[in-house]
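The freezer alarm interrupted the setup, so I double-checked each line after restarting. Inputs confirmed:
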Amino acid sequence: ETGVTQSPTHLIKTRGQQVTLRCSSQSGHNTVSWYQQALGQGPQFIFQYYREEENGRGNFPPRFSGLQFPNYSSELNVNALELDDSALYLCASRNQGGRETQYFGPGTRLLVL
Amino acid sequence: AQSVAQPEDQVNVAEGNPLTVKCTYSVSGNPYLFWYVQYPNRGLQFLLKYITGDNLVKGSYGFEAEFNKSQTSFHLKKPSALVSDSALYFCAVRDTTAGGSYIPTFGRGTSLIVHP
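Predicted 3D structure, all chains:
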C-alpha cells in the first residue's frame, strides 16, 4: 500500500450538485495529480498541483477545480455535476522532478444520479 | 502529442506459463515509460518504469519490461504467471522533451486473466 489516502471511498450525488474529494499525499511528496477513470477506461489527467499552485491541466472544463494546502494535501471540487462525471477519481503524489514515480491512492467512487 | 496503445483488451494465460502484455507508445522526445496494475475496486499500484539505461527493466512481483526504441514498445513480461496476477494492467508514457508537461498519458488497460 502507498501512503496516499483519499476520502470518501464512495459518494452518491445528484445531477447539478457539487462535490469535494480529498487526498493526503505520501510523506515527503510535494506534487499531487488528480485523474478521472471512467468505467473500462484508463485514468485521464485532470490537473496537477505543486506548491499550492496548479501547474498542469488536462482537457477538463473549469467546473473541475482544485486546491493544494501547505501540508501538500489536496482537494478536487466539481461543480454542476453531470451524469458523465460518474467515475473513479484517483489522486497521485510524487516529488517534483521528471524521473519521479507517481504513487496512487485507492480512489473515490463517485456516482451521479 | 503523446499517446499509448494497449492493443489487447484481454490476455488469457495458464498458470505457470509466460505472459506478455503489450504496449506501444508515441512521443516527440525521449519517453519515460511506466507499468501499473489495478486490482478490483483499488487504485493503481506501481510495477516498474523505464527512464534511461538498460532496456530490460525489472520490477515488483517478478515482472519485467523491455524497452524497444525502434519498435516504440514497452511490453510487460513475466516468466511464470500466477493466478494472483489476474488484474488490470496499465501502460503510461511521459514525454521528456524540454518544456514538456511531464504529464503521463495512460493506455486503456489490458485485463490479464490467469487460469489455474
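Quick read of the result. The two ends of chain A are 31 Å apart (CA to CA).
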